[in-house]
Specification:
Blueprint (H helix, E strand, L loop, with lengths): L1 H10 L1 H4 L9 H13 L4 H13 L5 H16 L15 E6 L6 H14 L4 E4 L8 H12 L3 E2 L7 H14 L4 E4 L9 H17 L6 E7 L5 H12 L4 E5 L9 H9 L3 E5 L7 E2 L3 H9 L11
Parallel strand pairs: 1-4, 1-5, 2-3, 2-4, 5-6, 6-7
Antiparallel strand pairs: 7-8
Helix pairs in contact: 1-12, 3-4, 5-12, 6-7, 8-9
């Protein structure tokens, strides 16, 4: 866990470096405001945070930083959640969605390992039948973790594959079924329609499913992440978020904007490519890393 925290802090250095101020005067508040905006916190959320910061009446720069961390933590705590796998649903179906390059397939592999380590029977569905190599990428995760992968041919109809996978997973008494999907550009209605078809097919087999629809967001996309949430919420619905690539961006403040606007739970954040680089989202860890403070707390398991 220490290594993961180090990666989080190192990844957020670009953001934390923005928070430089001396004393407590108008220039200090302007410096914080500029840092929040450059970190992609967004105007409305930034204005609210600066208002709260001024109302706290900090006496020096250390106290200003303390109150800033408190405000960030308070905004983030309501969305820092753990996804509970309901054992009454067998399988518990998790539909992974998002645009190309956000890290859906890798996230599925990491989640699969986390649930497997909790003693759950896991299976993957290679529902991204459009991207060349997507099925093979998920199969490599399956081989590495000894997790079965339900797959079809390249360009096969994804909805049919998902339906068959649901049937097989039910017979195999699978606890968690993670479904990969092709990356959808959020402004392409035709591609989003195909995703809606997958959801309808899932519900034909199991009306309560998918039990979680997780949108994977790339932290480096900044304010564009908000547009993605808007589009996927409207077209298919989103029950929670996973944020990837916090190890290489100065835009880590986007999580604050997401928290303020959508109030969707963030179940995990990623800081690298290995399985251990996806961990539960902790408000305190995030707040400390954002402003460059030492982080010592430890997250619980996903």
């Amino acid at each position: 866990m220490t290594l993961w925290l180090d990666k989080l802090k190192n990844g957020m250095k670009k953001t934390a470096a923005l928070f430089t101020f001396q004393g407590v005067d108008a220039a200090a508040f302007e410096s914080v405001e500029e840092a929040l905006l450059r970190a992609d916190v967004g105007y409305e959320t930034t204005e609210d945070m600066i208002r709260q910061l001024k109302q706290s009446h900090p006496k020096d720069s250390a106290e200003l930083k303390h109150h800033l961390k408190r405000i960030v933590t308070e905004k983030i705590e309501p969305i820092a959640k753990t996804l509970t796998i309901d054992p009454q649903h067998k399988p518990f179906v998790i539909l992974m969605i998002g645009v190309n390059g956000a890290g859906k397939t890798t996230t599925i592999g990491k989640l699969g390992q986390a649930y497997q380590e909790q003693g759950l029977n896991v299976a993957f569905v290679a529902g991204d039948t459009f991207r060349a190599g997507a099925t093979e990428q998920l199969q490599r995760w399956g081989e590495r973790l000894h997790i079965p992968v339900y797959a079809g041919n390249h360009q096969a109809e994804a909805s049919g594959l998902v339906y068959e996978a649901l049937e097989k997973a039910s017979l195999a008494h699978t606890d968690v079924l993670l479904i990969d999907t092709a990356g959808r550009l959020h402004n392409r209605s035709d591609l989003m329609d195909e995703l809606k078809k997958i959801r309808r097919v899932i519900q034909k087999k199991e009306p309560t499913a998918p039990h979680a629809t997780l949108l994977v967001l790339d932290a480096t996309s900044g304010q564009n992440a908000l547009k993605q949430v808007d589009a996927f919420q409207d077209m298919i619905g989103v029950s929670g978020l996973v944020m990837t690539k916090l190890d290489g961006t100065a835009k880590g403040g986007i999580l604050l904007a997401l928290a303020d606007r959508y109030h969707l739970p963030v179940y995990a954040i990623g800081v690298g490519e290995s399985a251990d680089d996806l961990q539960p989202f902790s408000a305190e860890e995030y707040a400390g890393s954002l402003i460059g403070e030492e982080v010592t707390c430890v997250s619980s398991a996903i």
